[in-house]
Amino acid sequence: MSLSINNVTKRYRIRARKSVVNALNGITLSVEKGRTLGIVGESGCGKSTLARLIVGLEPPTEGSLLWSGSPLGQGVKNTFRSRHSKTQLVFQDPYSSLNPRQTIGACIAEVLKTHKLRGDAEISARVIELLAVVGIAADMQTRFPHQLSGGQRQRVAIARALAAEPELLVLDEPVSALDVSVRADVMNLLVDLKNKFNLTYIFISHDLSMVRHISDEIAVMYLGRIVEYGTWDEVLNNPKHPYTKALIESIPEHTNVRGIDFENVLEGEVPDPANLPQGCAFHQRCPLAVESCKLKVPELLNATKSHLVACPEVLK
Amino acid sequence: MGFLKRLASVLTTLFGISVFVFVVLRVIPGDTITSSLGIETGVLTPEQIDTLRAYYGIDKPLVGQYLSWMASFLSGDLGFSYSTGAPVWDLTKSALLVTMQLALFGTILGVLIGISIGMFSARKPGSARDFLGQFFGLLALAIPGFVLSTTIVTVMANKFQYFPNGYEYMTPFEDLSMNLQQMLFPSLVLGIAVAAPIMRTTRSALLETVDKDFVRTAYGKGVKPRIVRLRHVLRNSLIPIVTMTGIQFGYLLGGAVIVEKIFALPGMGRQILDAINKREYATVQSSIMVFAILFVTINLITDWVYRKVDPRIK
Amino acid sequence: MKTSTGRRDWVHYYFKSTSGVIGLFLVLVMVILSIVSALNLAPIDPLEQNPIDALQGPSGTYWFGTDQFGRDIFSRSIDGMSRSLSVALLSVGLAAVVGVFLGVVGGFFGGWLDNLVVRASDVIFAFPAILLALAIVNSLGNSWIDTSIAIAIVYTPIFIRVARGPVLTVKEMDYVKSVRVLGFSTPRILIRHVMPNVLAPIVVQIALSLSWAILTESGLSFLGLGTQPPDASLGLMVSEAQALASFAWWTLAFPSLFITVVVVGLNLVGDGLRDALDPARRSSG
Amino acid sequence: MTNLLEIKNLSVVISEDKRVLVNDVSFEIKPGEAVGVVGESGSGKTLSALSILGLLARGLKIESGEIRFKGADLLKSSAEDLRSIRGKEIAMIYQDPMTALNPVMKIGEQLQEVLDSHQHQITDQKTHILNGLAAVGIADPNRAFDSYPHEFSGGMRQRVMIAMSLLLSPELLIADEPTTALDVTIQRQILALVAKERKRRNMSMLWITHDLGVVANLVDRVIVMYAGRVVETGTVDEIFKAPKHPYTAGLLASLPAAGRDRERLESIPGVPPKPWQVLNTCAFAPRCKEARDICSSHRPELTSNESSSVACFFPLGVKQ
Predict the structure, then answer these.
(1) Average pLDDT of the segment spanning A193-202
(2) C70 is a domain residue
(3) DSSP line for A118-164
(4) Which has the minimum average pLDDT: C13-27, D194-208, D229-243?
(5) Alpha-carbon gap, residue A108 to A160, rounded angstroms
(6) CATH of the structural domain B88-309, one choice from 1.20.1250.20, 1.10.3720.10, 1.25.40.340, 1.10.530.10
(7) Model pLDDT for residues D110-131, shown as the tens digit of each residue
(8) In this structure, are residues B150 and B262 in contact, taking their beta carbons and an 8 Å threshold?
(9) pLDDT tens-digit readout, C39-80
(10) Total structural domains within chain C
């Protein structure tokens, strides 16, 4: 069992500007069952679009997404239910991901009832069990979301996703909106749940330190394309692509006082996704750029067997 | 949105309006001849009825009727008044002037009163002055125009023996002083009605803008409080105020129907009302269409002002 | 952190506002008077003429005085109020049901359907309300149901807008996306997750629209459309008072007061509800 | 050396019900020094900073305390005196560059406003503004001058804000999480820009953030806040290499970092309390591994020791 994303492209037509945005461009990825794929990139790189495609909120423009061989992304009506229950999504902002007018118990029970995952008699016991799994006491189930802290709400959102008994969990910036001192707790919970339920994770974040912590493999995205892919060790300890390197160098580490290099800063802004430059989208900011970078979009090529890089210059 | 696109959307709306007017005024009431001539139909010979039917175009199928109405409307032929025999367009021209003058004065008064009281209220939310301002807003909203007009007429005419609207209506070109006196009370009634929602919008827009980050930035860089209020707070609050003014203009045109009747002004509203009472459908239909075009034009102007006030809209 | 259940919070909050309570009181008084009239419990028959008592000032017998036919103005006022309220309730009820349905469906599904709904409401918006009502009443007839239908048509687009805007916002909220990912059916999502969160502005709009409907109804009857003599209607009474007010002030004052009081009351209720139902306005906790 | 800014026993409350949000906060900034204030949401770090310039939102007020700038208490000075300090001697940049600029005014006008509001010796004002824009890395200052804020990206707007704050060479720059809303590569550009300008002008700086990584790389001295109080202060090396308060230590240990165990993070149980709930006890006691009885019955005061201070009955690394 595995997730395979084959040559997926997503285009949006922006009517007001009469332009087309390529949010995703020929993404090919696969995740083995039980692994965690980290996806890292800055705003506009397409990581959240990819998340929506994987859980079926939107269909891809081209390409296919398969979970153990059967289509995920395309809206096949008769498999609607099974498709949705196998992949679930946890959103970034726990303040907006729960219906404000539903108690947290009702919100989890609704999933069980709608999909008939438990008989009527067992529902309340199951709700309590799911809340316990994420560390929420049973007497909290009559509370409304606004009566909980951010960390508690995120736990409820995770419990609700688990209620659907998913095999693949897409985590879109699950701790970024939380207070620093409660992030570690939620991260530990995610690791525990993965082991306990044998889940597969796709962990999406702009925060490289969190991605580094939890991922087995890492894909680095820039403007709708994967620029580097490999095991976490390869990508973070031996980065090849100049963008990956800049990203790693840009993280201010608290373990390295005054360690950040303010002299060699990656200059320039991320180009407008609706108006991408010819060739490699990174060439205008790249210290290694040569003439050929302006002409042709670089392909992902093997640096080692498991390590792929979309930059011919560093592979020379 | 480009200008062409905007224009296309306006034309679609106007098309919809014309269909709507046609349906409401011609299809729903049924046979125009019988309803407009009422019991007199019986005295007409079949030939006369056919001639009239052909004249009104109602011997054709509905689509044909619509098309012939539109064709003559667009060529400036708004039909003839049954009672006077005068072309509707000739009546409309002078009536339109009256209504537009009334609407313009009413809007100006309404905006001035509304913004001033709104600013007066918002200076100190929750205070006595705020209460006073809001109380005025509520009363202005709740007292119907016809009550206010009737009261003014009664008090002015009987207690002060002053009632310029009792004399024959004067256009501004004939007798400007008389015209302005005749416009004073009707404009004031409309202005007060329009002022209420503008006051409320102004107050809430000001209160919302005061808490915006950029206002804090302005104070933080040492700009004088008076300048912050005018240049940052008021200027940003203008956006919803402009929108509300545009919306109110429509209300004002409606209010004109009642005010023109009470103050005996020969405007569009009274023309439509008279036509309804005399069952002159051609006049009603064409006048309402003219009204709608006027309204859509005002919306276009509002839109243009809106773009001037807010550079973010392209 | 509060431990109350949140659901009834807004009732509590509403009654904390003085103006909201005053508004509710004014509306309730008018509603009770209307019911009294509708049940024929008025002290004097509103249609009964007593020429001997014509144009009497307010007194113990005739609380609000009498008109030129000697009819009791108090009884006629509450009769008119009950007629106004009936028209307002029916018209706003119709407008709210149709408008909210079209707005929610259009906003949620988008596409050509939404386009059509928005275009159609633009068309109706392009008319001044009273003028449109005038034209429709003129076509339909003068009964109170005809008047209600006319006013309903005028106010339907407002409900379309009020419902559609929040639906567009709520549709993009993460909690609606997450129930889509959970595979819930579209009717369930609409009824259980979208509707409860767009209800607040609709409820407020109902209160405000009732007040506008009363103003429109009385405006129409003032112009001679809608309720016909000898039946009582507040607008008609003001219209008749035009000729009488200079020597019989009560003929103008009391019907006018009734309209103003009920409109003020409904507006205060609307504002109170707006504050009570908007969590952002009471988020000091 | 005399202090440029001295905050003494500052308390901020909600006017309506007097709930305390900032509780008895004191710290100081020396001339030329860069101080970082670290804390989570609700710790009172931003409110403390806004109090300095009297920019607290409606509904909040300063209950007690002193804010001395070059010796004079800003809380006692007249509105006009405070205004003449804002933007000239103390400037501020804010968290969200998308909303901090007036959307209906051109960028040039908004910079010009700073010069118009204060007395200064600058003669060629337009050139001064254009130079200021160029100095923060805006490629075409002439075009930027006539543009509206919405025509710029978040990073560029933050550069404009920085140019605006530096126009009159203030002695103190207060920065309220100015890079939180930005992407990491853009954050690094802004941090580098601020570090460079600060050095060049020998300007003091107060940098508010929840990001310990930013603080470790940018400032000289750190103030750690928790639930409305200062719990620890020290030089950047002291705080990051030998934290004394269990909260600081716990926070540092909970963050994933290069070379750390990837399986488990050291987590702090529970959630931060509201400041008004913990006025007379140690706010961190319910979540603290070291807590004893006294911690939940008495309030530990901030006690100084040379360059550092800590508000804890049982500070780490100190023999009891």
Answers:
(1) 94
(2) no
(3) S-GGGHHHHHHHHHHHTT--GGGGG--GGGS-HHHHHHHHHHHHHHT
(4) C13-27
(5) 5
(6) 1.10.3720.10
(7) 999 999 999 999 999 999 999 9
(8) yes
(9) 887 777 877 778 787 778 788 777 888 888 878 888 888 888
(10) 1
Contact in structure between A91 and A157 (CB atoms under 8 Å): yes
Domain assignment present for C233: yes
B158-217 residues touching D, CB cutoff 8 A: 210-214, 216-217
List chain D residues with CB under 8 Å of A222: none
pTM: 0.86
Mean pLDDT of A161-184: 91
| B47: Cβ contacts below 8 Å, ≥ 6 apart | none
Give the pLDDT confidence of C121-151 residue by residue, as tens digits.
888 877 777 778 888 887 777 788 888 998 9
Residues of chain D in contact with residue B220, where contact means CB-CB under 8 angstroms, are 53, 55, 86-87, 91-92
Q: Is D261 on the interface with A (CB under 8 A)?
A: no
Could you give the C-alpha distances from D2 to C197, D6, D51, D69, in angstroms and in order? 57, 10, 21, 11
Residue B159 has pLDDT above 80, yes or no: no
Q: Looking at the complex, report in whole angstroms how far the Cα of residue B144 sits from the nearest Cα belonging to chain D.
A: 37
Cβ of D319 under 8 Å from any chain B Cβ? no
* Average pLDDT value for chain A: 88
Please report, for chain B, the start and end positions of each structural domain, with discontinuous segments joined by +: 2-74, 88-309
pLDDT tens-digit profile of A104-123? 999 999 998 888 888 888 99
How many Å apart are CA D235 and CA D306, to the nearest integer?
11
Interface size between A and C, measured as CB pairs under 8 A: 73
Residues of D in contact with C284 (CB under 8 A): 14, 16-17, 59
Query: In this structure, are strands A217-222 and A19-32 parallel, antiparallel, or unpaired?
Result: unpaired
State which residues form the domain around C105: 19-34+76-277
pLDDT band, residue A158 (cuts 50/70/90): very high
Question: What CATH number has the domain bearing residue C206?
Answer: 1.10.3720.10
Whether C138 is covered by a domain: the verdict is yes
